[in-house]
Amino acid sequence: MSHEVFSPAWAEVFREQINRNDEHRRAAAGWEHPVSLVLEPVAGIPDGRRLLLDLWHGECRSARVVDAATAATADYVLSASLDHWRQIFLGTSDPILALMQGRVKLQKGGMFALARSAGAAKQLVLSARRVPTHFPDETVPAVSAPLPVASTPGPVAVNTTRTSFRSLEARGFDRSSFPYRLFQRAKRDGVWNPSDIDFTRDRADWQRLEPRQQDLVLRLTSLFQGGEESVTEDILPLLLAISREGRLEEEMYLTTFLFEEAKHMEFFRRFLDEVVGAENLGDLSRFESAPYRRIICEELPGAMRALLHDPSPAAQLRASATYNLVVEGTLAETGYRGYYAMLESADLLPGLRAGIGLLKRDESRHIAYGVYLLERLVAADHALWPELESRMGDLLEPALGVVRSLFDPYGDRMPFPLDQDEFIGFALSQFKSRMARIERASRLAPHELSGPGEDEA
Ligand SMILES: [Fe+2]
Ligand SMILES: [Fe+2]
Prior knowledge:
By secondary structure, the chain is α/β, with parallel strands linked by helices. The protein is about 60% helix and about 5% strand.
């Protein structure tokens, strides 16, 4: 039997489902805040409805339909329209993504604490999805949206003969295109050599660091090193897919992209060998958390290598969302910014700092290309925008988990003053503005795309 959403009977079954959800119990073990969910006024329900959940260390002690004054006593108050709650409870919209994009409004409570508890929020929503639900504007019970079925890729057609030369045609290169300008910028910027970085003072600084400080520097460096190796290897299928479409200017730019990722990998290995010393490293996989492995070792190679047998625009979109928006745009950009600021404020490890400064500049071009590619893809096929939202919905929570897992081992005593909320806040604001920009492109025709400005190329 189904219950109308936000009704007392629905609330009771929701509470039971939360308490049966062991994943929620684990993910919300540290949570001790009441949360109100507010259904905004809708035809037939002029005052809306409010549900107050008493959530305590993974348990839901009560779930009650309450009045506005009582709902406002919760530490967190989240409101949305009926349509948006429907999308969340039926599984077509991710709760954290909906929050980032303002479809769910945080009327009370801290965004950062919520973002840090993204895993618990997701489990809460999964519990709600297990409640047989119907909605007040429906006459028949709703059923959960079917999961998208992966298309079975056919063999990729390969041209074995060259029929012409693009660079010999009268039109030549499209010099005003964004990828071409980015290529020019990369050549101007991209000549730094990791072998030229001087680590003399770094070696002396390293010896003076306390063990906890060494632990954090080694943790960050080895996680970045693993990430750089992955992006070096995994960019190739995208390069191939773009090349097969005859997008010469993009291919030209992507050659610098691959070269730079290889240099980043080389740079961190030099630091490990020449400053820390190979004999002092131990098994660096000890630093890899479960969310890190999920993103870097599963989602990234999975999305990129899928292009080898399925180079379709949808597959390119999933690949670029994972590579450019999540790995580079959320993890690397935020991480390098924080790492650089940490070393700069302590005036430590100037060689490492110099390399990270140069690497940040390269990464900003990589991300600019990714945003360009995603804009181009959604402008050419507007139906790809929901695909992007769904991909980001899957990845945002583990991405925030990677950030959290950097801080967790040190508890309240970070070896350097690093602020987790600042980290997450920067990552989310960058993510939000990039998504807004791509969403705008999803409403335009390809010829209406203005492309990123000169300052970004
Ligand atoms: Fe890189
Ligand atoms: Fe990169």
